[in-house]
Amino acid sequence: MSFVLVHGAGMGADCWHRLAPLLDGEVCAVDLPGRDSRSDVDLRSVTLTDCEQAIVQDVDAAGLSDIVLVAHSFAGVSVSRVMPALASRLRHVVFLSAVVPDDGARVIDQIDPGVRGVAEACIHDGIYHQDRAGAEAMLCNDLGVDDTAWTLDQVVDDCAALLTEPVDLSGLATPVSRTYVRLTKNHCYPPELQEHSSRIVGGDTVFLSAGHMAMVSVPGDVAALVNRLQHDVPAAADDHPVSLGAPHASREARVADQAG
After folding, report:
1. pLDDT score of 107 more than 70
2. Which residue of 67, 80, 160, 234 could cross-link 123, Cys pair, CB 3.0 to 4.6 Å?
């Protein structure tokens, strides 16, 4: 069993630091282009195809199989793209409060209007740059002082063009089991938008009592959920029919409040 973790916008692989040791298998935390291990890439040039290729490259380099693939926040649109290429190696895909807009739409159009204004104000010369105050308001509403400081230290610049590039969700038709995790305290990606994304993704839905950075605030709860999926039986070809943008039936389990 292995776990591939893909960060959201304005973050790098280090954001998974507290979760990774709690997972029951080999862990690969991906750095998307333009940061940390891929800092040689010009941020302004990064596309969703580049993000897709980076994920596949890291999986290939590590020789991973039997993968639980976890997409946080913005990673919803890049992980959707890799599902066909990795299908034979995937056990389950977890969309952790992932941004998944309608097919062909832009991510900037699928965020809360208040947050959108903050995000647009962070764009300068092709770079998406969050100052600490703005990042704290969006990401840290449920975090204590120490966790907030640690999270803000993880924030990095990102490519502004990724927010406005039309998304390709055709990969969601890949017959792979998937779960959407709705974070009930998330101010950055509020409940109604998470519900919309979960219906596009299909599969199962669970609820976790946490804000946007659940891997920081409740890493044990996230690990318990993700580890449990290693026992999941991969979907048959017709288990998760996807009609992009249409509602899907899902088995909803309210796990967060039960956990604590």
Report:
1. yes
2. 160
Extract the tokens encoding 148: 């907030």
Q: Tell me the three state secondary structure of residue 227.
A: helix
pLDDT band at 109 (very low <50, low <70, confident <90, very high): confident
| Angle subtended by helix axes 145-154 and 132-139, to nearest 10 | 120
Q: What is the CATH number of the domain that holds 49?
A: 3.40.50.1820
- DSSP at 158: E
Q: Is the pLDDT of residue 170 over 80?
A: yes
Q: What is the DSSP letter of 167?
A: P
Three-point CA angle 93, 168, 89, nearest 5°: 30
Exposed/middle/buried for residue 69 (C-beta within 10 Å: 0-12, 13-18, 19+): buried
Helices within the chain (DSSP H only) = 48-62, 75-86, 113-121, 132-139, 145-154, 191-201, 214-217, 219-228, 256-259
Tell whether the model's pLDDT for residue 243 goes beyond 50. no
The CA distance from 14 to 39, in Å, is 14
Q: What percent of the chain has pLDDT over 70?
A: 89
Give the per-residue pLDDT at 168: 95
Q: Name residue 140's amino acid.
A: C
User: What residue numbers bound the domain in which 234 lies?
Assistant: 2-259
CB 73 within 8 A of CB 188: yes
Which tokens go with 26?
Answer: 């080999």
